[in-house]
């Protein structure tokens, strides 16, 4: 078998292994899914009336329902950020249990172990997003996207998720314990709050507003808001989303691969 | 049969291996040749560089200088080929805690591209051989220390490797589990596989290995069979103890070649043929009517060897921290 065929086979075996691990350790997914669901309920029921007071959607909805529409893209990214924390945790579990050392002394496709983790995490993140969206729908969320809009939303979500997963995998490989690995990607769950995900940029104080306007989560949220709702999708946000995803993903991929190949647990 | 470096008869050839962590030189130019089909033990105290040697030889990380070849393939330039030939059981058990024993073995079979049927058959066979059938479908997080080690070794054997690395395979196990693992490792040699194991237990090296290399502070300080090493220290002795000074002094005069140990009223008589020497000596003492309180034959142990070679107490007895006064600080 040529090298590429081995790499594909090995990635598939590792993906299957990681999915089985997720099934055997359901508490991890439940824990990671809990955060966005709680935030969704909190922001819509507790703060939604106040935050949505001045909002009117294109279809004329106001108040809490309008805020629900507004906040769903931000919640989707909280879901992604929370899910990738799981990627860092499971990779760190592999590192500390020594099984990564076993894989590294076996003739396995160069990046298959990590690709298996990335694909499993992506599936986990997408399932989590689907569940969060169902909760949102139960609360009254009615996306008006056409099939093309859904496709665009899925595309940008997958792209940005893969980038954050590689980042989390790198953090998990570099962590010296599972605890460190579960803490280091936590800043990612704060990022949607410092973007246009929960309140419009012009309501933010100077400094935070500039940060929100230029950080990677904002363009992704804007693209999601445009594709899922009935507002136009800003072209600049599409380009920025692609650029941030490729940039974060590319750098993290290289760092992760380097760390995987160099770092041996000798304890 | 002699083995030239790099010859077809050698499965592991280590040349000039050097590795430092910061200012601490862990390996300082190691040369070692492991003949094909042999069981070679790398014996040394904690921190002597055993795990570092195995890690480099099993492609985990490169050395600073020097080389390792496995069956003629360089571990850096030809890492993939080397990985297809070796099986590694590291010091920390490398199993998937969320999986059952059977799932762990099948995962290894899949990753070795055995095919689905063969992978299953091999898993069943190894579960049987390692006495894990009853626990096969339980998550390995419920396994005992000995069971985890057995599964770990079984996972290494899924692909019938040509060279097996065992890094401290029984450290931390109770005596019974250790005995079971020794039997398994002993059984492997029948298949002609080459085994390179590290240990800090002299007894383990003596029990399992054809050849022993003693590693101390990053240097190989001795190499040979257990017999060779024992011979390097001193010969066997007959130790005669006496109840009173009168007999002791009389025996000293009678046996001038014996080494007196005055505080214990004991005479140590070096000899290379204990049976003949014992008979002659006892006859001599009997003829002179000297009463002997106790007779003991002392043959050198690897403990003596270890002490003589490294100036340190037995590694097994001193497993906590081995840092000499002249060692660089921070070395561990």
Automatic annotation (TrEMBL), chain B:
Keywords: Antibiotic resistance, ATP-binding, Cell membrane, Membrane, Nucleotide-binding, Translocase, Transport. It is a peripheral membrane protein. InterPro entries: AAA+_ATPase (IPR003593), ABC_transporter-like_ATP-bd (IPR003439), ABC_transporter-like_CS (IPR017871), ABC_transporter_ATP-binding (IPR050763), DrrA (IPR005894), P-loop_NTPase (IPR027417). The keyword Lyase does not apply. It comes from the Bacteria. It holds the Pfam family ABC_tran. It is found in: Cell membrane. PROSITE patterns: ABC_TRANSPORTER_1, ABC_TRANSPORTER_2. NCBIfam families: drrA (TIGR01188). PANTHER family: ABC TRANSPORTER ATP-BINDING PROTEIN (PTHR42711), DOXORUBICIN RESISTANCE ATP-BINDING PROTEIN DRRA (PTHR42711:SF19). This is ABC transporter ATP-binding protein. It comes from Gordonia paraffinivorans NBRC 108238.
